[in-house]
Design a protein that fits this description.
Its EC number is 2.1.2.9. This is Methionyl-tRNA formyltransferase, mitochondrial. Pfam families: Formyl_trans_C, Formyl_trans_N. One of its GO terms (cellular component) is mitochondrion. Keywords: Protein biosynthesis, Transferase. It is a single chain. The protein has 10 helices and 16 strands. A 7-stranded mixed beta sheet has the order 5-2-1-6-7-8-9, with helices on both faces. Strands 10, 11, 12, 13, 14, 15 and 16 form a 7-stranded antiparallel beta sheet that branches. The chain starts with 5 loop residues before the first helix and ends with a strand. Helix 6 (160-166) packs antiparallel against helix 9. The chain folds into 2 domains: 33-244, Formyl transferase, N-terminal domain (Rossmann fold), CATH 3.40.50.170; 260-372, Methionyl-tRNA Fmet Formyltransferase, Chain A, domain 2 (Roll), CATH 3.10.25. It has helices at 6-26, 42-55, 85-92, 109-118, 134-137, 160-166, 202-225, 228-232, 260-270, 358-363, and strands at 33-39, 62-68, 73-75, 80-82, 100-101, 122-126, 144-148, 171-178, 188-195, 289-295, 301-314, 327-329, 332-336, 342-349, 355-357, 369-372. It is elongated and about 80 Å long. By secondary structure, it is α+β, with helices and mostly antiparallel strands.
Length: 374
């Protein structure tokens, strides 16, 4: 996906501009404003799809003039270089490959030069994954607007959905905010709230919030493109700021000394965090892990490492005399946790195996005992 030279870029853009101008004239004599979209994972691709569909309307005030995304990355076992979900969606929609930019850094001189050739009036970001320097932010006259999956100023940072689930919030949402040099600190144009239940997991919630965000963006674009949104955007209250730092692999381990509710929240926000929706597929993210002891019929213990896929929490737990034995009831493994609580494991995965239900796993133990790992 090579970036085209400025002459070729200029030629392609001028053709697009003429087409947009003709369409605009037929709809009332105004040309469409140029928007540049920046994003990378699947949730961002859904936002781009929304913008592309909307831009096809003859009376739409904007056109997507260029797409910016992360460079192709090695994926799957073959380590083949694959385009980001956003790049793939753009190509599938027939978007010119020469207008899909994949800079390593958004501050590269060649990229900024190409961006200026496109003459964007507004840039929109959604999970782009690259820091935007001031030289970038100075280019579009109507600014850069970000779709952020939290109710700003809450959960500024790289992992707002995961950290909200970790904290067990009952409500979160999505915000449209102008991008400034400070992280997620720009004035907020609008936000949409969303109620959270204890069963939702990070990928599902992330998809929901970006879907809400794309609809909110379409609603607000007229005021963003006439400048009135900037006048009414509200500065964030710095006294209410919370942060959402990116995940690290050490967080993937469950400690059964903690209360079950905390562990359930961790499973919810880490579940499939290594998928392309939340982290790069080549990041080596291990998922949510736990260590148990498997005791055979001779009383010999062995460490068993599992990946915990789905859970429920229980405020109280029936335990054996020593309080360490893992039991089975209904469709769940019952693991004693801190505060006399109990983590119910519904699905799990053994190393090198497929995800299985707790019942099938339990049946496969064939009389062996399962204990919490010390």
């Amino acid at each position: 996906m090579a970036r085209c030279s400025p002459p070729l870029l200029r030629r392609l853009f001028c053709c697009a501009a003429k087409s947009a101008s003709a369409a605009g004239a037929g709809a009332g004599g105004t040309s469409k404003k140029n928007i540049v979209f920046l994003g990378s994972p699947q949730v961002a691709a859904s936002v781009l799809e929304t913008l592309l569909v909307a831009s096809e309307s003859p009376d739409c005030a904007f056109q997507v003039a260029a797409v910016v995304t992360q460079p192709p990355a090695a994926k799957n076992r073959g380590r083949k270089l694959m385009p980001s979900a956003v790049a793939q969606l753009a190509l599938d929609r027939g978007f010119p490959g020469d207008l899909i930019f994949t800079p390593e850094r958004a501050g590269e001189e060649a990229f900024l030069s190409d961006l200026k050739e496109v003459r964007p009036e507004l840039c929109i970001t959604a999970a782009y994954g690259n820091i935007l320097p001031q030289r970038f932010l100075d280019i579009p006259p109507y600014g850069t607007v970000n779709i952020h999956p939290s109710l700003l100023p809450l959960y500024r940072g790289a992992a707002p959905v995961q950290r909200a689930l970790q904290d067990g919030v009952e409500e979160t949402g999505v915000s449209l905010a102008y991008t400034v040099r400070a992280l997620d600190a720009g004035p907020v144009i609008a936000c949409e709230k969303f109620a959270v239940d204890e069963y939702i997991k990070a990928p599902e919630l992330l998809a929901i919030l970006f879907n809400l965000g794309s609809k909110l963006l379409l609603h607000e674009l007229p005021s963003i493109l006439d400048g009135s949104a900037k006048e009414r955007a509200k500065p964030q209250d710095d006294s209410k700021v919370t942060h959402a730092p990116k995940l690290n692999s050490d967080e993937s381990w469950l400690s059964f000394n903690q209360e079950a509710k905390l562990l359930h929240n961790k499973v919810s926000f880490l579940f499939l965090a290594y998928s392309s929706m939340l982290l790069p597929t080549n990041s080596g993210w291990p998922g949510t892990r736990a260590k148990l002891q498997l005791v055979n019929q001779n009383g010999e213990p062995d460490v068993l490492e599992i990946k915990v896929i789905s859970t429920k929490s229980c405020a109280s737990c029936d335990t054996t005399a020593d309080g360490n034995e893992v039991l089975f009831s209904g469709n769940s493994l019952l693991i004693p946790c801190g505060g006399s609580s109990c983590l119910e494991v519904l699905e799990l995965q053994l190393p090198g195996k497929k995800v299985t239900t707790a019942r099938d796993f339990w049946n496969g133990l064939r009389g062996q005992k399962l204990l919490k790992s010390p």
